[in-house]
Description:
Layout: H1 8-11, E1 40-46, H2 52-65, H3 70-73, E2 74-76, E3 83-87, H4 110-121, E4 132-138, E5 141-146, H5 149-166, E6 178-181, E7 183-185, H6 194-211, E8 221-225, E9 232-236
Helix pairs in contact: 2-6
Amino acid sequence: MHAPYVSPKLATFSTAYNDAPPRDLGKRYSEEGEFLPEPGNTVVCHLIEGSKTQNAIIKARQRLIDMPEATTHLAFTPISSLHMTVFQGIIEYRRKWPYWPKEMSESSSIAEMTSFYLDRLHGFPKLPAFEMQVTSVTPYGLGMTGATPEDNRVVAEWRDAFADAFGYRHPNHEIYEFHITFAYGRRWFEPECLPAWQLMLDDCLRELRSEAPVIEMRPPAFCEFRDMKHFEELIVFEAL
């Protein structure tokens, strides 16, 4: 009899693959799942309120919440915060280049940095629109890629333009994996529970790709945040 299937990707969420606690535990959120202060700014596309996409994604998110291990192993962000990051802005705990622009002091306040970027981004060029699709579902959320090769090219153009405006490129700039976060890990999963998760996640992916083959999102927006629960739009970048 064959062992229940667990993908290599899902297996990385297990205690068998991890000795240290999840990376952001104690910094972004507590062991109890409460989100901690972590101010910064970023560029994201929020979901369109009331859209078919939002409804499908909320349904998928609820299926994760309903799993037996979810309430003890994951810290879920609010539905209102669901978004896809287009470009990572600055954040309190990353204050060195290439996560922070060289022309600004590393001791600048987050408010000063947001004001600096508000001035700089008002001249941001208009770029073509792009569409995204879901390619994977994990315990942490959705993996995304362009709906077509041209969409991949265009979203990369947006990222390059933001990198010029922000004054840095993260080391993973060229290979950044787009995603919509549902939750962060509070603890790793025991291997024996993962086959049930695999079945549920595979089913979620099939449903999402059927119900929302293209993910409806608002245009990219420069946002400020105090923690991972809310991203306030300050500038919306309308596409061509």
